[in-house]
Amino acid sequence: MVRQQVPWLVTAAFILLGCFWGSWNASLASIQGHFRLSNAALGILLAVGVVAGAVAGSAATHLGRRLPPVHLLAVIVVTWAILGLPLIAMDALWPFIVVFTAVQIIMGSVDAVMNVGATAALAGQPGRLVRFHATFNLGAMLGALATGVSGVATNGGSWLWPIISALLLIVVTIWFLVSRDDVDPTVDEGLALPLPSPFGDADPMPATATPTSLWALLRHDRLIALLIVFAAAALVEGGVFTWGVLYLRRDLHIGLLAGASAYALGNGVAGLGRVLAGPAIGERSPLRTLAVGSLVTGCGLLIESHTHNAVLAASMLVVTAAGVSLNWPLLMADVGRRSSAPSSAVGAFTASGYIGWVAGAPLIGAIADRWDLSTGLAAVAVIGLGVSVTAGFLAHRSTAAATDR
What we know:
Layout: H1 8-35, H2 39-63, H3 69-84, H4 93-121, H5 126-132, H6 134-154, H7 161-178, H8 214-220, H9 224-251, H10 256-277, H11 286-305, H12 310-324, H13 327-338, H14 342-370, H15 373-404
Helix pairs in contact: 1-4, 1-6, 1-7, 1-9, 1-10, 2-4, 2-14, 3-4, 3-7, 4-14, 5-10, 5-13, 6-10, 9-10, 9-11, 9-12, 9-14, 9-15, 10-12, 11-12, 11-13, 11-15, 13-14, 14-15
């Protein structure tokens, strides 16, 4: 097998998207205070834009499945960068909501298409794909730390989004000038995969028989159950990096730099976990790995939500970050291997992950407003434990079905 390299524009997109979310999560308490948002309102703000972005991302990958991923990514990234530039000037709530929602919608397409590009380049190499996802954690670390340091320097926090937008424009310009003729890996949609689905006995199908409906495609490959589990796992991941950090800042009164540092450390551990675990991927069941990771995450969140010790709570944030570190890239790699149309399937799972990531945000926010943020975190922990049990059950059923065959 020829070892392809991930196009550097895809790598840059992963890092800069991580920077965006790192800056956002580190600034979350400041943003909430500046616009006087309740927890539920903050959850709705996240949910509306990201869900719309998830739909846009799924549509972009499914409709553009015959287009080179990197060329499509370049167009979408430029749009994202231009929309992000005005964010620094948004001081009133409604203009900020409109612009931020538009940015999230385009970000959904960026995320989906860059995942397709990475999956295409590393097709059949799930370990390398898992390790590659550590670039997102690197970006999140950089974004959080830069936000924390600049916040201390400016006595109030600084959003790095316009800087990120400018970097995106520079990156795409350089790529267009020097690399646009490079090999652009595309996903082989006619691939007949010999791997059975963990949820059924679907037979590989020729390219001519590929369903035109995305839902029909997922049903044929027996990926619907995995799609739901993936969304729930992403909900827990969003709870760790959104509400877990906000709990440190708001309830335990950790400063901006300390909170950003805890978030950065959590991403550092998550990225390290992806790098170190990469070589073992393929030897472990993705569902069993998900079950163990979700168990660790659920227990860590329960401890964090019931302690008033800032050091212990920050330590549990790091533990929970390690617990969720493999979920997204591991299952994405598995989907890329099992689907008869990997580009569409990866786009659908990215959309599902985005929806799950923020679907719980209004719910957890409402719980936090009704009771407190500690109770909201505990709710995320219960969902994480539920994911662990469900993934373990599905893994057992998959093993039993393979034995019967």
